[in-house]
Amino acid sequence: xxxxxxxxxxxxxxxxxxxxxxxxxxxxxxxxxxxxxxxxxxxxxxxxxxxxxxxxxxxxxxxxxxxxxxxxxxxxxxxxxxxxxxxxxxxxxxxxxxxxxxxxxxxxxxxxxxxxxxxxxxxxxxxxxxxxxxxxxxxxxxxxxxxxxxxxxxxxxxxxxxxxxxxxxxxxxxxxxxxxxxxxxxxxxxxxxxxxxxxxxxxxxxxxxxxxxxxxxxxxxxxxxxxxxxxxxxxxxxxxxxxxxxxxxxxxxxxxxxxxxxxxxxxxxxxxxxxxxxxxxxxxxxxxxxxxxxxxxxxxxxxxxxxxxxxxxxxxxxxxxxxxxxxxxxxxxxxxxxxxxxxxxxxxxxxxxxxxxxxxxxxxxxxxxxxxxxxxxxxxxxxxxxxxxxxxxxxxxxxxxxxxxxxxxxxxxxxxxxxxxxxxxxxxxxxxxxxxxxxxxxxxxxxxxxxxxxxxxxxxxxxxxxxxxxxxxxxxxxxxxxxxxxxxxxxxxxxxxxxxxxxxxxxxxxxxxxxxxxxxxxxxxxxxxxxxxxxxxxxxxxxxxxxxxxxxxxxxxxxxxxxxxxxxxxxxxxxxxxxxxxxxxxxxxxxxxxxxxxxxxxxxxxxxxxxxxxxxxxxxxxxxxxxxxxxxxxxxxxxxxxxxxxxxxxxxxxxxxxxxxxxxxxxxxxxxxxxxxxxxxxxxxxxxxxxxxxxxxxxxxxxxxxxxxxxxxxxxxxxxxxxxxxxxxxxxxx
Length: 734
Description:
By secondary structure, the protein is an alpha+beta fold. 44% of the residues lie in helices and 23% in strands.
């Protein structure tokens, strides 16, 4: 009797190409080879399975082979060759071959399910469960996924072969089945022949297996990125079933197919999430800035140029409106960012409801939204929409149980058929208009006009010039005398910054200070000025042996700096001068703004600096605040001095009385005439400052005034004029 052949799995092509897929390579009899090739063509043409036997030799030397070829849609054709020479095992072998090939057929069918449309992954999983249940002849086949950190399994899809129904949503908790979850962590199939007695699955008995009439369970791991993410479950009903090794391998292959579907689903979800993040604001669900620009570019491309609006039959007008919310920062600080998010979401809903379906609403910044109208009926209609929108936003919104009235400002820019504008320019113009609306007043609408761009360009150029000027040392302090109104003696100076511009002009702070404060350049500008002042004081003291006292204006941004005292003390000590020669001035608004103002002022006072409140009377500081601050000097704002003839006298008198009650000295700013000097002196004011008493001068002139005139006096003629008026005596100068 010939040596039995082992099973041989081939891939046969109608072109005569035969490839061995598994089994020992061996030469095929020519006649068998020709039959395989011929049958392959028949199977491909008919789409039907072909089974035939091949006999070779006679008597005891004969060999009987059974060949089974499975139908496929495209070559090659799988062919399984089994040696069935032994009569006793022929039928059993044939039955096993049929089962194997049947499962192979189902595997090929399942492989095609991966081609299910990418947006219907549930359908793909349903098909897999259905085919798996039929292939293994089990009652149920399902896909179960892990939730949380191995906290539970939930059923994604499950098919019942008896009821022919799909179900999902069932849940199994890890706390109820510790043995089962521990077995699952081993990343191996769980083949429970008798699931009611198997320690791994016995916990499923009363709550799951018995009610469904299930006796045997075969669960194979689902893996995603090499890690277990769930199981493919095959559940048998009736008498307990012993799972064969072949069935376990087949079940594992089904799990791999399901895992591929899950991987494709996850991959597509990531792609969609990235697309959404790239085009959508996550908080409001509106389009973001990039999506807005892309949409406007598409509108522009569809018309072959700038945004002209209108479309077919339109009026040729497009409009972009930017709406900037008020009070968002205040809500964030007072109620938290979650409340601010609620406010933004509510405003987004209001804006979406205010426009047409074809109009686009986007969130383009923290508190900024954009409304793009590709086809606007008229400029008047857009303006009316803007005012109506701001009215809607003024309606109170409920945020964390509180009623918030937000309000907003808006800027509009147009693009027309006669003057098309690119998307970027349209956005820039609308932003400029919004900025102007915000600065002028709340809940205001501004339409872009060319001067706004000119202003922005000038501001940008000015910022660059200031930066370069600081680097070149073009900023220097000028000194304006502060005079005793009793004897016209110059008691100190106030430092006022000037810019020797490369154009040859000497610029006052009006030309550059606002820009410097906005950009933060006022900080290095202020420290540079203080270093120059301290160096000047040191030189004058060395030349005269007398102190030269100077008032130094501290900006709001400098006052906020955490290293305020260290920075000032370092500069003063480096110049080897007494801190008491420096009078630090802050505005009344700064005094009343910060919670730690008293502590900061106390530290400066303790270090020896003299402290003054500038522009007093224009802010909102209360008497209790002033009483708690260690201030030395009140400087009456020039606006009250200018109104001495129209009711200003009583205000000045009250300020002087307040200062004396708090043991503070008083300086009247902005004295421009002899009459004003006489009046403020008569009201008890000790010191004065203004153009009539002395204009700001450079440090060389100020040093000359102190050193060459001996006494710290005004020019002789002006001093005589002041004394001849017989001003009332002021309190003696300390």
